[in-house]
Give the backbone structure.
Amino acid sequence: MDLTLRNSRIKLPLGQLFWREVGQGPILLFLHGSWCDGSQWLPVIEPLSQDYHCFAPDLLGFGESKQPNLHYSIQLEVECLLQYLEALHIPEVYLIGHSLGGWIAASYALKYLTQVRGLVLLAPEGIQTQGQQESWRWERWLVGRPPLVYGVLRSLFPLARLFGFHKGIEQALWHRQKLNSSPTACQLLFRRRRSEIQAELLQEQLDVLTVPTLILQGGKDTPEAIARSKAYANKTPNAQLQIIDHGGHDLPEALPGLVAQYIHDFIRRDLEQG
């Protein structure tokens, strides 16, 4: 990868933010997913940096940004993003977000509509779909107190191996390790009251999200993720849904060239029409 990145930090009222920056032109701001940081977007940014001014911050509490002792919420991340853009004197952006970053991007656009030129959301979180509550309970249990999780799962492991069920436990332990790799994401998604999380869900607000929106969704992703993307597309007035049949949840990493092309085409159409 041949990118000449400018790495910077800025102290904001909510905490210090780290970001990567490259290119010139219309401003694209990339928000990473739940278990990543801004470097997730570098393979996508590389071809786009020839035509656009790209910013890839680590969200507050992630990566090389500070992890202040705060009660994290989607709105906290939105306000930190506002502080960041105001500090850099950026009046208008295209927001591109994956997973958790998509939830934050859409929430930001709903609150500060005039500052967002367009949205590109990849498998965005932020909408409750059928069956999601059971999945949420399971993952909340997985990231619970370590002695409980490890004790139960590991005590079952010898018996499970005897009957050939050990792979499910191995997968659960691996999934738990992945979830706990980002404490801030765990707090945002699982370690808050259910009522607080539900209050930040977007399905009842998307009908006023009038900015041009492109939703990219991998066809091999989970049924829940596909259902969320379809719900975003159905509820957002100016949204276009593109299902990438051979893609999974990791579109920015697995198919960066294709994702970059979709983003480029979307922005070019918007600029020509605007």
In short: Residues 132-185 form one domain. The mean pLDDT is 90. Residues 109 and 116 are 6 Å apart (CA to CA).
